Amino acid sequence: MSFQGHKAYSRLQELAKKPIDLTQEGVLNSQRVDSFIAEAMGMKLLYATERVDEEVLKELFALASEAKAVKKMTSMQAGEIVNFIEGFPSEQRPALHTAMRDFFDDRNTAKMAAEATDLAYQELEKLKDFLNYIEKQARFTDIVQVGIGGSQLGPLAVYLGLEAYRKPNKRAHFLSNVDPDDGAKVLKRLDLSKTLVVIVSKSGGTLETLTNQEYVIEHFRRAGLDPKHHLIAVTGKGSPMDDPNKYLASFYMWDYIGGRYSVTSMVGGVTLAFTLGMERFLDFLRGAHAMDKVALEADPKKNLPLLSALLGIWNRDFLGHHTCAIIPYSEALSRFPAHLQQLDMESNGKRIDKKGHAVQFPTGPIIWGEPGTNGQHSFFQLLHQGTTIVPMEIIGFSESQYREDVLYKGTTCQEKLLSNLFAQSVALATGQKNDNPNKFFPGNRPNRILLSLRLDPFTMGSLLSYYEHKVAFQGFIWDINSFDQEGVQLGKVLALKFLDQFEMLRQGRKADAKGFALGHSYLRHLS
Amino acid sequence: MSFQGHKAYSRLQELAKKPIDLTQEGVLNSQRVDSFIAEAMGMKLLYATERVDEEVLKELFALASEAKAVKKMTSMQAGEIVNFIEGFPSEQRPALHTAMRDFFDDRNTAKMAAEATDLAYQELEKLKDFLNYIEKQARFTDIVQVGIGGSQLGPLAVYLGLEAYRKPNKRAHFLSNVDPDDGAKVLKRLDLSKTLVVIVSKSGGTLETLTNQEYVIEHFRRAGLDPKHHLIAVTGKGSPMDDPNKYLASFYMWDYIGGRYSVTSMVGGVTLAFTLGMERFLDFLRGAHAMDKVALEADPKKNLPLLSALLGIWNRDFLGHHTCAIIPYSEALSRFPAHLQQLDMESNGKRIDKKGHAVQFPTGPIIWGEPGTNGQHSFFQLLHQGTTIVPMEIIGFSESQYREDVLYKGTTCQEKLLSNLFAQSVALATGQKNDNPNKFFPGNRPNRILLSLRLDPFTMGSLLSYYEHKVAFQGFIWDINSFDQEGVQLGKVLALKFLDQFEMLRQGRKADAKGFALGHSYLRHLS
Fold it and tell me: What's the pLDDT score for residue B244?
């Protein structure tokens, strides 16, 4: 059944004509705050400031049930093929990122999942041995992760998120862009003799990553060092990079792990375990695994990722909003929105459903965001008084990571941070009447708050998994394929045509270059 | 005359019903690339991939003329009052950021502007003397800029943009968030005895900044250092922070410089001149000043910021797009989109016009973005095949900053970067037909390219000014006030109420705390 064919769809369309008005005196009261709340694994989702009432929730839950959302999640975690388009050539793969951390209680016994977990556990053991080995040598203080997209965004976001927990003598750096200034800047500050470099590419053929590998190798050689004693590979078995002779160590990933879902595999594992230590990396996996179980919960009021997915669909398809801002009130999560941009927009920025039909409804929104309170002094003006409404998911923590604080004017920094978080949530929802039109706030800006005790490795893992499953649930309900990325292909092909132009011009073959007149034109405009 | 009252408005509405189809074979050809181009100060704007033709351009130019856009820009640069709402209490101020860099040829002779320039020049001379003085002492290697919003975003974006040009022994750091983990992380890595701290707050009353000042002072004391020998103030004359006894040096800014327009004032000046040196900082100002003059050009085909503003209005108000992505193909510009978020969204995220009437058309779009090629491996899937169209402004440079490059598979990194830039622009515009619906690209995604030779101090200044004026032009044409930010007030007031709650609970006055039942409710949910 297509998304728009569900019975709940038309009832929700009806309800969306007159959603609850949060600006009315007394509507957003304590009772509403206390009842529109869901909790699991120490994480609370407060959604009193969304434009939903019991009736809307009932229909959203009916929609999830009609779309068999939890059943599809169960299939996904079991390793059934979820990455496909019916009737057309497609990747035809499972999506088994949950198997990358199924090492704890209540393991999935489905054959595919169990096999994937066994393979992943072998890599984890290899990593443990490797880290012990290099730790004894005490040779390395820094690690550079060379990779782009999912091989950078997730690992970087988590590394920064947990920097408060890293070993004092272990640092990570990330090199992704083919922009030569990226490499120059990153390598400039390192003592290469103490540096490990992990090259990450599932296909072993990512242009940016291979180019940067070459860039790094050249720098090692210039420094009189043998790159083979510094380079590690994370790649698919049998890929062009699967060549142990070239690397100090190699770790595998599999084609059932999408780049944007790969943080808990070796793609994130090598750098995170090197800098945090194996115990904390395992805590991170444990947190992700715990949320994987929450995502299997049938009751949407207990299934946080599903509830968040439904609220997102309400905002996107019924209230008609095009974007969703993710605002962590935590400086450590400064790059988490960038990870979610890929996770969400590459998964659900799709225009056909799983039967290959062009969809007639909005799919994945534009995800963007910056930490609060910083954002308040930047773009929040538009959120409060602009002409486009931006639904928001706010992430907050009761306690800080370093627990270094000062009392200033009677309150701590952490209390100021939380006061601002709550105040923005309420202000966006309720607005404010005023006779001065410039001081009038229309309100009814939907938002929700995701609250935990502290951003530690376990919670970071849970947060990561929460969003992975939120995105997957939206895909299941829209009946689109959240696990491929055909949309990146055309640009790649065209880039090669432009590269040919550069090569021909370098070789003085100007006449040939004119065969691609458009490309020739663009290149002429380079100063 | 209101925006929708202009004659060109209704003609543009008519034209928007059938905009040029860039996916038609041959429409995007060399001739179009070569004719849809504007150039000034070594900067080229290539806009063949926008959905405009000569007729649309003619009407957009008529719109600019009816709205007296260039005349208003001239008034603004002369120091007339542009920050006002008619008939209601408002700030009633000029916006004189252009006077902060009017130190070169062809100075503005209007009284207000000339006076502002004289004052700014005094501060510049003070800064020069101060930097010479501390340079002789050779005491300081690091500077921490404490400030939020415009006191952080612009200076940080420019510092990172020009890091390739900084003095090898001078580094800058930024502390903005009231999150205590921000301060802990920044101060952790510094030798405070060699550290200058510049506290930036025009009002002298920004909660985050004063709290962080306290945080920093406490760390200096703990390290046995006298904060007075390390702290510099940048603030308004007569503000609570205007107290030379507390600071090693003080520099002024004025109420006619909005935070988001303050990078070229002392707000950016102290940190940028400290790290880059005065000569390069002056080059940066020179670049900004040169673009200020371009913005006074009557012909929109030569006035790059105006042309860009008009293309943005076409996309926003006539083609109906809600966001605009800024994609710099330059890792150095990684935080430039965050600066533009504030600049644009805080300026033009408004719902009333300058007469106090609620507008009936979309104003400022949501601005977001990340560097390319990184973005290609992240959210570009949605840009190519999603259900929401995202207009894009791409920023590129012919040459890299460090000029360290490798040849890999026949081309350099820089050539790969540029090939991807051009390829994305073309792919988004033309799309691609395919019988497999998953390989079909609808195209007609409007975008433009801003191309310069190299990101050096002069070009960085020009880029900054280009966007300042683009935003101002859009405000002039929409007839909204781009220079206030009333939308941030409500959250501030509510945050104080929550802070009171925390304070009462700290003091054990639980009964009192219940006076703000909603606040009490939220606080109870903190774990």
Answer: 87
Residue ranges of alpha helices (H) inside A144-206 are 153-161, 180-188
pLDDT at position A259:
97
Mean pLDDT, range A55-62, rounded to an integer: 98
Determine which one of A136, A377, A409, A525 is catalytic.
A377
Instruction: Give the distance from residue A455's alpha carbon to the nearest chain B alpha carbon, in angstroms.
Output: 11
Residue B1: predicted pLDDT: 81
Give one DSSP letter per residue of A65-115, joined into a string: HHTTHHHHHHHHHHT---B--TTS----B---GGGGG--SSS---SHHHHH
> What is the SS3 assignment for B266-289?
HHHHHHHHHHHCHHHHHHHHHHHH
Q: Find the catalytic residue in B167, B237, B492, B514.
A: B492
Nearest to B329 by CA among B205, B447, B152: B447
Q: Which of A50, A59, A346, A393 is catalytic?
A: A346
Task: Give the residue ranges of chain B where pLDDT is below 50.
Answer: none
Q: CB neighbours of A307 closer than 8 A, spacing ≥ 6?
A: A38, A45, A47, A300, A301
Residue type, B27: V
Check if B175 contacts A (Cβ < 8 Å). no
Whether the predicted model's global pTM rises above the 0.90 cut: yes
Minimum-distance CB partner of B499 among A378, A411, A440 = A411
CB interface of A with B, residues 230-269, below 8 Å: 259
Is A180–B414 a contact, with Cβ atoms under 8 angstroms apart?
yes
Q: How confident is the model at residue A511 (pLDDT cuts 50, 70, 90)?
A: confident
Q: What is the CA radius of gyration of chain B?
A: 24
Q: Is the peptide bond before B411 cis (omega within 30 degrees of 0)?
A: no
* Calpha distance B224→B244 (Å, rounded): 22
Whether the ipTM is more than 0.95: the answer is yes
